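note to self — DONT lose this again. spent like an hour looking for the file last time. sequence + predicted structure for the chain T wanted, 274 res
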Amino acid sequence: MSDKYFELTISTPAELLEFIADLVSTLTHDAIEIGDDNLIIRSDQNLDNLQEDINNLLKKLDVDIALKYDLRELENCDWISKYQEAITPVESGNFYIHPSWHEPKIGKINISIDPALAFGSGHHATTATCLDMISKYLKKNDSVADIGCGSGILALGAKKLGASSVDLCDTDPIALNSAQENFEKNGESIATIWEGSANQTERTYDLVIANIIADVLVMISKDLKKTIKKNGILVLSGILDKKESKVLDEFKDLTLKERTLKDEWVTLVYGNEL
């Protein structure tokens, strides 16, 4: 182990903290600690380029947010243990989402997720809301697809609730590995998993989940619609409220059944009733 490590602190407005955490998680697979108004990324590799990558991604998404960066090179310590201490379990409806170093909770649907590689540990507002919507709309023995699965937490939730089969995909191969490991850890099985997006399946499903970002949802809208069975359900999330109108316009041919707003994040539930 090196006697040095790098620590990048990103200060951001508290209301945008989870949005920035989501973006950062697409750019690095190092551990991300979420504070009250900052993120801390620690790595044994230099994080010089991460600041520029974040700014470039914000510019590409046409988001104007002033972030403050503080990059330090520090004496090594057991920062992985410190990171683990900062990650606490999350209760979302009937679900209890906990890292492996915490015990499961009696009387809850337990999902064990270690939030190290792929984003999706239950702490993000969209994850909690999507789990609520899955709990509400999933029927026993439904077939499910999780498009942009990340850690696989949403598909895991669906399987725990009685889905007959779950298919997963993501454009990030590290996310796919993480999802497979999480399914094995939780004693559940994946029907099919692939690297890519909704355009690479010919199957249709009773319930489709896509917790991505608004611009990507718009971009893949036609492919998402093709995956839903007649009278099936489509759950869209990862939508920052100021981007909602673009998504509403793109999916107006479906029936909007429910809209939920939490911490500036919108989740939309559609029915395919055509």
